[in-house]
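## tool: complex_structure
## caller: assistant
## args:
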Amino acid sequence: GQQVMQIPQYQHVQEGEDFTTYCNSSTTLSNIQWYKQRPGGHPVFLIQLVKSGEVKKQKRLTFQFGEAKKNSSLHITATQTTDVGTYFCASDRRGGSNYKLTFGKGTLLTVNP
Amino acid sequence: DVKVTQSSRYLVKRTGEKVFLECVQDMDHENMFWYRQDPGLGLRLIYFSYDVKMKEKGDIPEGYSVSREKKERFSLILESASTNQTSMYLCGVKRSNQPQHFGDGTRLSIL
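## result:
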């Protein structure tokens, strides 16, 4: 079945450094969604990308969807301690009229103040 | 926004007990999901339902069953709990290819 591979599994940065997490698939993805899970919390939706080559920004966060729709990245510029958490990518698998998400294993980001 | 309510934040049960985890949504979304989350393994799909009384196995259904008698409620059942089912359980709700909304999670310990 469709799998989404996410790297790295962990990333520790100094506050102010940049951070990037990557998702890759061997098959073409219909979309890519990104979620953030704070420590002790549940995953919260950040953004969805649908179009080939799409780039979206949310303040210091930049999301990209590859031209072939097989990979995606989330880049955070100048990390802050509030960025701490696990970032997941996910993509819809469609079976008939039903949709379910395939999640990457997530990247745990820790930030040293 | 969709409100997803899981019945318990923390639960402690004994090996062999039958355990019920409940999830309720306040919208009319057709798709509901149960995941377990373990360190290093991410979110793994146990079961999902796309309509009342409809269910499909996810990636790790063994040892679990589900029930969806009403559209707003999706229950996860551990027929005979075992220690390897100690985990964080997350309920998800979504409409077609829209974002997924999660409950706060239930941290289940099986002793």
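## assistant note: Chain A has no helices and eleven strands. The CA atoms of residues 7 and 43 of chain A lie 18 Å apart. Handing back to user.
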